[in-house]
Structures are given as C-alpha cells and as structure tokens.
Amino acid sequence: MIATAAPFRTLSTAMVTPFRASGELDLDSTARLARKLVADGCDAILVSGTTGESPTTHRPEKEELISCVRAAVGEDVFIIAGAGSNDTLHAQAMAASATEAGADGLLVVSPYYNRPSQRGLLAHVRAVADVSDLPIMLYDIPGRTGLAFSDEVLDELAKNPQIQAVKDATGNVVVGEERSERTGLAYYSGDDGLNYSWLAHGASGCVSVVGHVAASSYRDMIAKVREGDLPGAREISVRLRPLVHAIMGGGQGAVMAKHALHMMGVIESPRVRLPLVEATASELEALEAALVSAGLLS
C-alpha cells in the first residue's frame, strides 16, 4: 500500500463532545478544543463519532456541533461527520442533516447489534450515499459492531467514486494493506496503538483519539514516515505508548480524553452522558502520571 491520496486529509482527531456540568452542550469548550486541535496539527476533525458520544447526542445538537466547529476553524479544515446507525433511515437522516450543516465528509459504520447480512450491509451504505453527495469514509470496527466489511462488499462499494476511504480498527494491518491496493480505497488507522504500523504500511493517515493531547506528535510521526525516516517515526510511537495506554487501554476513550482535556484546562467539564460514566480514581491517577511524563501537565 502506497499512500498516494488522502481524500480525508492526513490527521484527524475523533473529537469528544464537551458538555457542561449540567449535561448540556458546551459550545465554548467545543470551539476552544477545535482551535487547539488545528493549532496542534490536525487538518481534519471528526465530529459526532463514537468518541463524540454520537449515540447520546441528538440531531439538532449534531448540527450545532458542526456549525460551531466550522466557525471556530474556518473553511480550510476538513470536517467529517459521523452518520452511523443500525437504522438505515436514521443514518440517512444524519447524513442529510450533516450535509446541510456544512460537513465535508461522512463516516459510515457497519450496522451494529442487528448485524445484517453482507448484502444488507451493502444496501445500507448505498442507501446512505444516496442522500448526500459528500465523500464517504467507511468505518470497519467489528469488535464493537459485530459486523466486519467483507472483501466482496468493499470491492462493490469501491466502484462508487463517492466512497473513498476506510477507517480501519480491525487490528489487521496486512489485510488492510491488501484491500487498499486491490480497491484503491484510502486506508486510515483507527487504532492509536497501531498508528505507526499503519503509516509504515502506507496508510493515508490517522483518525485518532489520543490526538486530543498528542496531535503534534502524530503530525511529526506522519512527516517522518513520508520522509522515509521509519526509525524516527517509531521512536515517537514508543514515546507515546504510556499515553496511548492511559487513554485507550483501561477506561473508555471518550471518558479518558475528556478527563485529560479537563486536566489541561481545555474543556470546562469532563461530563459524559449515560451509559458512559466518569473515570475511577485509579484511572485518573494513571492518566495524570502519563500526562506529566509526556510533558503535557506540570
């Protein structure tokens, strides 16, 4: 796999959705966070993905978030909107709404829980594509959805020029490399623990959670891989391991990312919506230690 195209740019953070302590949207913190991500090196932002608590935010809130981020970062930053659901009509409504609100691209995950057949998965994605002219990034994360994209479905979807990329969280870099070469789809790492491996195998970029606090390091990693300095890129990966583990290894990524941002003074509150709950004391202790060790907190 040779990264020759990056239709969804190169470094995106799957942004958390800041809430006030009351549970309402915190648009001030949202704008502040979006500006921070861009200043740190992100050229794209994913709004209302799983890390953005999409299952517990409502369509008007999702529209507000897109508008807020756009106003904060301007037109040059690529905004990806989550449009994933196990209800095709709901996914279509989210896709149409995100398009109207000004998103640049859509993230479409395989339907979870009801786990349709591969024919159903193909029909689902095509139906979502029918309601928007935005480019689509597929999200392959069978560990959460229980439904992986088959080779046959990816081959069919790749025939549609609107479907341009895959965010891969399967953990199988070799299979992803083969699929990208065969289909021409741009592959993006969807697992911070494997960002270096994906990039070294030619991925177009990363969609990160740890990027909330380490986007500048991931930007440097991408640059080193593009320059052919794999040892230098791997050194960054090794240095980030404690931080990746603290955010992604124990607690839930959205929860831990919010706590990190709150500790750093970026967002007003680490509040999450049920069924997510805030981190335990031991998780917070480990997170704080990792942030201090990384020089992100004094």
UniProtKB/TrEMBL annotation:
Keywords: Amino-acid biosynthesis, Cytoplasm, Diaminopimelate biosynthesis, Lyase, Lysine biosynthesis, Schiff base. Pathway: Amino-acid biosynthesis; L-lysine biosynthesis via DAP pathway; (S)-tetrahydrodipicolinate from L-aspartate: step 3/4. It is found in: Cytoplasm. It catalyses: L-aspartate 4-semialdehyde + pyruvate = (2S,4S)-4-hydroxy-2,3,4,5-tetrahydrodipicolinate + H2O + H(+). Pyruvate binds at residues 51, 207. One of its GO terms (cellular component) is cytosol. The active site is at residues 139, 167. InterPro entries: Aldolase_TIM (IPR013785), DapA (IPR005263), DapA-like (IPR002220), Schiff_base-form_aldolases_AS (IPR020625), Schiff_base-form_aldolases_CS (IPR020624). GO terms for biological process: diaminopimelate biosynthetic process; lysine biosynthetic process via diaminopimelate. One of its GO terms (molecular function) is 4-hydroxy-tetrahydrodipicolinate synthase activity. Its EC number is 4.3.3.7. It is an enzyme of class 4 (lyase). The record marks 50, 113 as: Part of a proton relay during catalysis. SMART domains: DHDPS. Homotetramer; dimer of dimers. Belongs to the DapA family. NCBIfam families: dapA. Catalyzes the condensation of (S)-aspartate-beta-semialdehyde [(S)-ASA] and pyruvate to 4-hydroxy-tetrahydrodipicolinate (HTPA). This is 4-hydroxy-tetrahydrodipicolinate synthase. The lineage of its organism: Bacteria, Bacillati, Actinomycetota, Actinomycetes, Actinomycetales.
